[in-house]
Write a structure and sequence with these properties.
Elements lengths: L1 H5 L4 H4 L12 E6 L4 H12 L4 E6 L3 E3 L16 E8 L2 E2 H13 L3 E6 L10 E2 L5 E2 L28 H6 L16 H16 L4 E4 L7 H9 L17 E4 L19 E3 L1 H11 L24 E3 L6 H4 L13 H12 L4 E6 L40 H13 L4 E6 L4 E6 L3 E6 L5 E6 L5 E4 L6 E2 L2 E2 L3 E4 L4 E6 L7 E5 L5
Parallel strand pairs: 1-2, 1-13, 2-6, 6-9, 9-10, 10-11, 11-12, 12-13
Antiparallel strand pairs: 3-4, 4-5, 7-8, 14-15, 15-16, 16-23, 17-22, 18-21, 19-20
Length: 498
């Protein structure tokens, strides 16, 4: 916490960077990994806005390398930036501006993956807009950058020295030359790129590979960003929302707390804990204190929390594989818990099917990204997964909107893998991860009435399409969840009463 005090002077300026400017009654950001901007715009209009999602995160819009050997257009290709031209398989600058205009009109803010720790990473790269990156000589003429704009080549041979972590080459996927953000010229190019996106309606950024950059350099970059564009419905003097991706190893010189004054930080410990617990390695009863100091999370208001992201669902070097769409009931329960619990600022991952850890988005024979197909059930046909459209998931976004700031209370457990808790006076949720049925009468704190379980259905024509729960005049209700229940969860809230 001492590092937090060191940077406290920065808080006054950066405080605006903690506000996502969600519309009232909206919450939660969903990452539509590799979607085309035209499809994102349609999704904002047809689903995200009406369902109360607060924001959508889109993949890096800058020109990236085309990687076909030995991988065929992997998902991490977008991380290999060749220039700051807005041009990728998701669309061009006009497509991006059309998307932000349409999403903002229906209450969905657009947040952008921003990659500027490094450039390129392969010899003789060719970009989607025709630019080239000469890997060996470290030149990127479309920016332009030359070898003088990078730190001297060096691998990260030790994580115990901040100088090495921040000045040497990050090689999560492929070796990449490390930009020197201490240079005024480099910072000017980055700021110009980000300000262009702000001018086109972006509400903020997820900054990738943060721990490989010095906090003082990032503060200089963030402080130079423009206010959000009022033409897209933002009030005057709104600062861009900043959330920073940083996976911290147990023994490492770089510390998450160094970046807290600059913007939110991704809380990988939350992801790791939910994966471990809902897989059955620890009982659900330990979740009674989830998010409190003993869990070693950064403070709630500074945390981006998630069940999985595009990296750790596949294979995270730091924490191991997170739960993902292939895991069924444990995955659904983890998402329900994340959205029902008040800790942190949730980020959902919406994916496409993959059979290996490098597989990229669905594409046609010409390598154009395919559009998702929405079926009659309102979910996506294969090869898109679209977890955000699963009824169990989007209904919990609505649950979170309904309970708002209501306090977390009335935690109950059987001492093992059956738990429940209330969001006082607004919502109640019950979980069964045991090998025997749950049958309990519990205090919900809710008003008397008939409630529809939003995991299994909703109110339609004055009836519940799924389970109904009767809350007595004293606030108690009986809950039954059998071991073969496909979701293992019941959730009720005051917005779904008969």
């Amino acid at each position: 916490m001492k590092l937090f005090v060191v940077f406290l002077a920065l808080v006054a300026f950066t405080r605006g960077q903690f506000n996502p400017y969600f519309w009232p009654g909206h919450n939660t950001i969903v990452y539509l990994l590799d979607w085309k901007y035209s499809d994102v715009a349609l999704e904002c209009e047809n689903f995200l806005g009406p369902k109360g999602f607060g924001g959508v995160q889109v993949s890096s819009p800058s020109e990236n390398a085309i990687i076909t050997d030995p991988y065929n257009r992997p998902w991490w290709e977008r991380f290999h930036v060749l220039s700051y031209i807005i041009g990728s398989r998701s669309g061009n600058q006009d497509d991006f501006a059309d998307m932000t205009a349409r999403c903002n009109k229906c209450g969905v803010r657009v947040f952008v993956d921003a990659i500027f720790n490094e450039m390129g990473g392969l010899p003789d790269m060719v970009g989607t807009a025709g630019s080239t990156g000469d890997g060996p000589s470290r030149t990127f003429p479309a920016v332009p950058y030359d070898s003088s704009n990078f730190h001297p080549p060096c691998p990260i041979q030790s994580w115990l020295h901040a100088f090495i972590v921040r000045n040497c080459e990050n090689a999560d996927y492929l070796p990449v030359p490390d930009l020197d953000q201490s240079q005024d010229y480099v910072r000017e190019q980055i700021v110009t790129y980000l300000n262009n996106l702000i001018s086109l309606g972006a509400a903020g950024f997820r900054i990738l590979h943060v721990k490989h950059m010095w906090p003082t350099d990032l503060e200089a970059i963030y402080s130079s960003l423009s206010n959000l564009n009022e033409d897209y419905g933002f009030s005057p003097n709104c600062r861009p929302y900043i959330y920073q991706d940083i996976a911290e190893m147990e023994v490492e010189a770089v510390n998450r707390y160094e970046y807290i004054p600059l913007g939110l930080v991704s809380e990988y410990n939350a992801s790791e804990s939910l994966s471990d617990i809902f897989r059955g390695n620890r009982p659900l009863s330990v979740l009674a204190t989830w998010g409190e100091p003993e869990w070693n999370f950064v403070p709630s208001e500074n945390s981006i929390v998630f069940v999985e992201n595009e990296q750790d669902e596949r294979d995270n070097f730091y924490y191991g594989r997170a739960l993902n769409y292939k895991d069924g009931k444990p995955y659904i329960m983890a998402i329900a818990f994340l959205l029902a619990h008040p800790f942190g600022n949730p980020l959902l991952n919406s994916d496409y099917e993959w059979s290996d850890s490098d597989q990229g988005p669905p594409m046609d024979d010409d390598q154009n990204i395919l559009s998702p197909v929405i079926n009659k059930k309102g979910t996506c046909d294969s090869p898109y997964v679209c977890q955000h459209r699963w009824p169990q998931v989007c209904s919990m976004v609505t649950f979170r909107n309904q309970v708002g700031d209501a306090s977390f209370c009335n935690f109950w457990s059987n001492g093992n893998n059956q738990i429940a808790f209330a969001r006082e006076g607004q919502g109640f949720i019950v979980f069964n991860n045991n090998d025997k049925k749950l049958w309990q009468t519990l205090q919900t704190t809710l008003p008397e009435g008939t409630y529809c379980d939003v995991i299994s259905g909703y109110v339609k024509n004055d009836e519940c399409t799924g389970r109904s729960i009767e809350v007595a005049d004293d606030g108690t209700a009986e809950f039954i969840i059998y071991t073969d229940d496909p979701n293992g969860v019941i959730a009720i809230h005051t917005g779904q009463m008969l």
